[in-house]
Design goal:
Elements (H helix, E strand, L loop, with lengths): L1 H8 L4 H25 L6 H27 L17 H23 L4 H7 L4 H12 L2 E2 L2 H24 L6 H24 L4 H25 L12 H39 L1 H14 L5 H17 L4 E2 L7
Antiparallel strand pairs: 1-2
Length: 328
Amino acid sequence: MQSFMKQLLSGQSKRSGLWAALVTVTIWTAFIIIARASAQHSLLPLDITWARIVGASAILLPWSWWTVRQRRREQPDAGSFAGFSPLPWRITVVTGFFGGFAYAIFAYSGFFLAPAAHGSVLMPGSLPLWTSVLAVFLLGERLHGYRLLGLAMILSGDLLVGGSSLWQAFDGGSVWIGDLLFMAASACWSTYSVLSRRYQLQPVPATMAITCFAFFSFVPLHALLCSLGLLSTHLWTAPWHEVLWQALFQGGGSVVLSGISFTLMIRAYGPVRSTMLTALVPGLSALGAVFWLGEPLGWHVLLGLSLVTLGIVFGVQPARTVSWKPAS
């Protein structure tokens, strides 16, 4: 398996990059539509989070344990969490908290309160905004030129979508709460991305680590709270095929498959062009929600979506970096 993955992850041809981009954009788009559609079925947000973590863990934890076991032949202290994480304990905890289950909890909870189009604008669309702000403080980057213009457009699009929902709160609406959850999810994933860059992590080991932390923290905590009656769950009453589907798509697809395909896309096209390709996600997912879920696409959402998409294209321009030493 290791030799196969090395060969897979070293692919640099245009064909492999094209397929990787297609898989990444498709899964990211489907994630938004399916997560919103799941709100109309049996499972609760934390149930879907549980299925996502368990589904990804079933694939990644055995793979990670085997990888760490091989490394420990030369480095006895390699890995952490009983060999299920390839990264040190502290990095596993910090990145796993933001990228493992905090992101998932906020995202799935948001889809139970706000339309998919709002998630399209406020989650993937806001990633460059949050990432750039965090990079200024954590990585010492300086923003200028086209990136500032792009970030201003993203912020305007977010305010256009979220502001209209916030205004409806005065009439008793709850969509604005979902919008805030989407923004929190985007901030969590951006924090994970910046930390991964700061610690110079490789995508596959990082994905293994955050899945490991989520499994050993969220899963037992979820079981404990449910057994004490402090948390509601539909895992044992929902149709088994629904739970299995969520585990396969949210875990195997959204976490594992898209993580590998995104790695291949970065290696084939570079980070800037890859981010431009993912700028297709907000528009495609919003239109998919109209077609598959019958959700309306108001003028403010459409305008906000356009601003965010254009802002991503401008916002992915390289930023100036000041001298900075990685954390030891």
